[in-house]
Amino acid sequence: MNEAIRSGKVVQIGDRVVGSVRNAPNPAFFGRVDYNGSEIEVILKIEPSHRLAKELIATSLASRVGIQHAPGLIGIIDSGDLNQFGDVQPIEIDGSYLCFASEKRLGSALKAPCDNFHLSEFALELLVFDQLIGNFDRVYENILEHEGCYWAFDHDKILFCDANLWSGWDASKTNINDLVGMNISFLQSRNLSRALKISAEFNTKISNTPLNFLSEIAKAGLFKDEDATALTTYLNERAANLPAIVEKFIKTNSAD
Fold first, then answer.
1. Contact at 8 Å (CB) between 65 and 205?
2. Does the predicted model carry a pTM greater than 0.90?
3. Backbone angles phi, psi at 31, to 5 degrees
4. Are 70 and 144 a contacting pair, CB within 8 Å?
5. Which among 142, 79, 136 is positioned nearest to 107, based on CA atoms?
6. Tens of pLDDT, residues 188-208
7. d(CA 33, CA 24)
C-alpha cells in the first residue's frame, strides 16, 4: 500500500450501492478507474471536498503506520459522464470533477460484533489508529472480513467529525468514544502494554518522515497550503500524545 496520493480517470460508473440512498451527502456507486493504464474496480463515493480530503488523509496514514485498509484514490470524472450520477453533483475543482474511489476488497461488512475480531491483533491496532486519526464513525459495517483477515474502510468523519476544520483543537485531549473501540477496550484491557507499544510505534512512523501527502492534497485543491501546515503540526502532536490518549481510553472502558 502506498501513502502517496494517487488519481485516476473514472472509466465506468455502475449502479448505486444498495444502502447508500440514506447517505444523501455522500452516495456511493460501483465503478472502475484507470490508474496508469490498469483498471481498478472501485466504489465511487461522491463527497464534498473536506470529506474527500479526510478519506485521503486516513488511507495515507493507514499506509504509513501499516493498518490493513481498502486503498483509495482521487477519481477524475469526465463531464460527459456526470448524468450517470443522476441528481448527484461531484465536486468541481479547476474544471475537474472529483470523487473518492475506494478499491474493492474481498470480504463483507461485519454486521454484528465478532469475538474473533475483538480479540485479534488487528482490533487493537485499529483502536490505536482510530484514536490517532480522531475517527468518529468506526462502526462494524466499516470493517471488512475475509477468511479471518480484516480491513478498515470509510474514513470521511475523522479529524473533528464532519466539521470542515483542520486545526484548533487540543491534540492531546480529543477522545473518540465509539462502540467498536469501547468493546475492544473492554475485552483487551489486559493488553494495555501492547496497545501502548503500538502507540509508540505509530508515533515513530509518523514523526520519522515528513507528511508530504498533505501537500499533495493541497495541490489537488482540497484544502489550502496553510491547512496542510496546520495538519502536519496537529498530527505530529497527536502522535506524540497517542500513548497517553490510548491509555486513558482503555482504562476508561476496561473490564476492571
1. yes
2. yes
3. -175, -175
4. yes
5. 142
6. 999 999 999 999 999 999 999
7. 23
